[in-house]
Fold these 2 entries.
Entry 1:
Amino acid sequence: MRLTGTGGIVLATALGLFALGWWTTDNLLVLIGLVLGTPIIADLVLGRRALSRVSVERALPVELFATHAAMGGFRVGNAAGRVSIEDRSGNARCEVQSAGECPVEWRFDRRGRVRLAALHLRSRHPLGLIEHRRCIEQPVDVWVAPRPVPGSVESVPTTDDVERAEAPSRSGDFLDLRNYVDGDSVRSVHWRTSARRGELVVVRRAGDGGTMVVVEVPASEGDAWERALEQGCGSFLEALRQGPVVLRLEGQSLGPGRDGRFRARGLRALAEARS
């Protein structure tokens, strides 16, 4: 806590009158000094109690990208008077005057894993003489994906097309099993294998061919590597609008996939790529 400008004037005046009255044995001045000091004590006790009752939770954005502002919020409870909330790790801050949700923007300068630590609260309730401060430890890790930059994507034949080109087969012949992706027909799900694996698996048959999009991030170093990741991120997001995607990064392949979980896995892989 610290005294505000007004609080400093009130306290200095109260102490001055009290000291002068004590020195001159003027009981009236002593009494006036004590009376002037009473609001300081009341503000100290009531304001500290009010701020200790405030509860705050982060409502983080679903996706975070380096240098891009992402909308989220703070869920605030038991707020009395104006309360300033600041998340210094994510450059997010807002002011509220009552309980509810306060919209804020999170912004991060670099990609990667970021630890959000404490929330810092400030309030001058109730009398404005003291600025009360409180720190709420609320650690959480977030992954910031690279800044998406438009890049090129490549469409390649699926396994079905390749096998039909090399060895034509009758329409409907069983080829293999693959993981379910958003948009697959429920009728193609292989329920027995899905139950055994604990995730949906579909049957691929001759005649079910199509294309998938391959996004490959070329290996590089330094700033060139960061630019490649940014272009890879932009290409990955664009490719998801076209169909199933395979993401190739640092010698590993992720996918094919297209649903929300796959999108989140791809963005996290791009965020966690070596620096």
Entry 2:
Amino acid sequence: MIQEPEKNGSEHPPLQKLKKVEDATVKGWRYMETLMVVCEMTCIDLNCDMGELPEAIADGTQEALLRSITSANVACAGHAGDEHTMRATIEQAVRAGVAVGAHPGYPDRENFGRLELKMLPQAVADSVYQQVRVLAEVAAKCGTKLVHVKPHGALYNQAVKNRELAEAIAQGVAKYSKKLFLMGLAESPMLDVFREAGFAVAAEAFADRRYEPDGTLRSRKFENALIRDPAEAARQALSIAQRGLVTAHDGTEVKLSAQTICIHGDTPGSVQIAASVARTLRDAGVTPAAR
């Protein structure tokens, strides 16, 4: 009579090793997922529109701003900017260790890209592509690459609610590269359009702008559209980062989830606002960091 060997659990050592590896892998992925969640809770990008004012480049304003932010949106010859301002801004950003992105707007320098234009979608796509391409070429000469694209002014605000316009922006950027991520207003349909076009997105909120109860930005035609007090801007940024809430101009609390917070470079006192926002976030345990 042949005796069967005892089943002591060691008859398939390779399978047992594989099981241990699988368990370790699962634990590793769970740890990484936890780190990602923690990072989203404790880190947020601070972006600023730059390269729009030659005097801000010359007088040190931009370099002072760059000490507080983590991403620079560089005007690329649409609403503002030329090869000189693009190069100077990118060089300053590289020295400061700040991520560089394109900031295309309507080709309307007279109105700083803040006037709504009735351009055909294809014309918008072509303009966005040209602006992104030109900036990318300058960035390459400076030894760096673009990371993101954020539309400017009226182009941005119209695309929040105008699907066709948002699609045109995405089409223009895609013609250059789909590896860039797109910034858009938090909780707005434009982000869905960008995602559908195959882009990674960063939902954006604003430290120095007041909101409407529907989560859109209050028009600059109103006196209270801008937040000029550094302490107030910092409180708003902290509320966005920690609570996912912003208080509209009428007192309504608006829920939003943002991965990046903007401070406009042309807002009066922007250097003080940026410094106050960055300091307040750090003091509260939220680290400014590019995506």
